[in-house]
Amino acid sequence: MHDAIIVEHLGKKFRRYQTTQANTFKGALADRGWRKREEPFWALRNVTFRIAAGKALGIIGRNGMGKSTLLRLLGGVGKPDEGKIELSSSRIGALLDLGFGFHPDMTGRESVFFTGVISGQTRQEVGRQFESIVEFADIGEFIDAPTRTYSSGMKMRLAFAVAVHIDPDILLIDEILSVGDNTFTGKCLERIHRFKAQGVTIVIVSHSMDPILYLCDEAILLDKGHVVAHGDPNSVVEQYAAMEPKETRRRTPVAAAGTITSSGIELQPNINRFGTFEMEVRSVRVLDRQGNPINEIQSGDGLRFEIGYEAHQQIDSPIFCVIITHENGTVYHCTRTAGAGLDLSKVEGRGQITLEYDRLEFAQGLYYLDVSIYEKGWGYKYDFHVHAYSFRIHASSEELGIIRPPHRWAMSNS
Amino acid sequence: MVARKEKSVLEQRKGIGNWFAKRTLEYAWDLVCELVVRDFKTKYKRSLLGVAWALLVPLSMLFVFQFVFKVVMNVETPRFNSFVFTGLLVYSWFSTSLVQSASAITGNANLIVRPGFPVGALPIVMVTINLINFLIALPVLLLFLVLDDIALNDTIVFLPVLLLPQFLLTLSLAYLVATMNVLFRDTTHLLGMVLSLLMFLSPIFYEARRVPEEYLLFYNLNPLVHLLEAYRLLLLGGTIPDLGPLSVLVGLSMGLLALTYKLFSRMSHRFIEEL
């Protein structure tokens, strides 16, 4: 299998204009007066990787760590200051900035041709795909209306439809999967999956880990312009997650008051509670399915967690996450609201989130609960209670194992 | 799908570049067309007079010149309307192309950040848009010729021979100003100044023969002098202009074009950073 993309020792620097004056008069003279001094800033440095044809690579990292710069350079926009990029094909499709190229006065039909042509296709090639584009965008008779009459969702669907009909050998995707409604995102993912099956090489930059885990064969983690991890997506995402507590700790206020939880454990900042506290977990109640507070169940019983929260300001799309951990440290279940279909787009003030398990068929033992609220891009936590709640599961002492699937013994004499 | 890709690789290897060359040309044509058409559509779609503006601007200039030179200053120029209108149309194609090219990169940031977008097409688009404006106004020029009792003969088919050198000359300078304006934003001011000076240093509303002998050496360095002379010879005089100087102009323009295009391409990677 040949390499579709080869990146070697790639470096890109930007000039940052500074108006700071020279420290000494002598220094200023040496600099020929007080003028703006350029301080180079390396957005990417020593980035090396290869992608085999037909594989998908995910690029993750916090904001401003060089992800989009790397994607742009791969697309031939801008020139590296160091190292080189080699692409096996010039048919590059790009799913970036969807819909920004549309002029409000042009109709959908005109925009399809315009966008197709500026993306590298001839009019004839766009024309051949036209019906299919309109069908994919699901836009109906609006195709002949000016795009200023479109909703933002329609614009995005149309732009995506044009972009995916380019038939590229290499496809660059920036963040687009984190916008739009669920059905549309699903359709996009499905289409990208098909590209992959056809042998298209894909590079995805994403804030959300799901497409990386779902689509990619490999991932790289960028931090301050350097590749700090490269390999299997699961392990890279894990490393990214491991970097996250550092960021949260950095942001945790030092003097936040300790409180006692419903499980009788004291919450202390930077010991078992972390976060920026713009949004807080106020209470967590462990209930049976009838709503009575409990602290122990039989394996196979249902269980309900009620999480009371308070957002001190309007928070955009926070993510609630609950992790159930056995006393021996094994994570039994981790679930989050992302993708659960709740409307958390604008959260403010107090409220409650409920997580209900129909049956918890775990082995017996003491279980701890971690409850957290993440910033929408998983960048840091607003609040994180570590092992602050607990409950016990009872099961027959004749059983061993980590889970307890429903089962029965039977005997028959033949 | 796979089979088709293999075939295209094979074609590349065998060097059957024909299809590729044809596609490249077809693509370049489509790209320029789309960009030009978008410009016209979006510029005139919501304006009341629409394309008529392409005419109104030079016509209004003509009336002001008529007032200043015929009424106030009493300058005798034979067939004044035809003479000045020719000069105005030719000059406004030249100057408007350059003004628009100066902001071609800075004003189309959303296009140039698209992977694979050929930035080099933008100056071509600007010069083409103004060529079309020129052609739209051409019937009105012919009307002026008729009104001035100028007999139109078949030499007019040589007009494209004049359009070519002007296109090349304008384009070569368009690449230069587009590049310069990204690097130094003063370019627009400088360009505005140069273009208004050049309007007076070109024979637009006066005849070149009025320029005193001792200045002619410098005066003739302005390529527009020769272009305008050739246009008038063809349109007003009905004679085919001397192809010698025109070929020299084409040659020089092509040399300049190669130079400025190279500069443009070399600098083009910096466009994205400077925006």
Describe the structure.
Chain A is α/β, with parallel strands linked by helices and 414 residues long. Chain A has 8 helices and 20 strands. Chain A has helices at 25-30, 67-74, 108-118, 123-137, 152-164, 182-197, 209-215, 233-251; strands at residues 3-18, 37-52, 56-60, 82-87, 92-95, 170-174, 201-205, 218-223, 226-231, 259-260, 266-267, 273-274, 279-287, 296-298, 303-316, 319-326, 331-336, 346-357, 365-374, 381-394. Chain A has a 6-stranded mixed beta sheet, with helices on both faces. In chain A, strands 12, 14, 16, 17, 19 and 20 form a 6-stranded mixed beta sheet that branches. In chain A, β16 (319-326) and β17 (331-336) form a beta hairpin. In chain A, α3 crosses α4 (123-137) and α3 (108-118) packs across α5 (152-164). Chain A is globular. Chain B is mostly helical and 275 residues long. The two termini of chain B are 39 Å apart. Classes of the chains: A alpha/beta (414), B mainly alpha (275). The interface between A and B is medium-sized, with 34 and 28 residues.
What distinguishing features does this structure have?
heterodimer, A: 414 residues, alpha/beta, Rossmann fold, Coagulation Factor XIII, Chain A, domain 1, 2 domains, 6-stranded mixed sheet, 8 helices, globular, B: 275 residues, mainly alpha, 11 helices, 0% strand, disordered N terminus
What's the CATH class label of the largest domain in chain A?
Alpha Beta
Secondary-structure content class of chain A: alpha/beta
Number of helices of chain B: 11
Number of helices of chain A: 8
How is the CATH topology of the largest domain in chain A named? Rossmann fold
Strand-residue fraction of chain B? under 5%
Strand content of chain A: 35-45%
User: What is the count of β-strands of chain A?
Assistant: 20
Most extensive contact? A-B, 34 and 28 residues
Low-pLDDT sequence parts of chain A: 18-29, 31-35
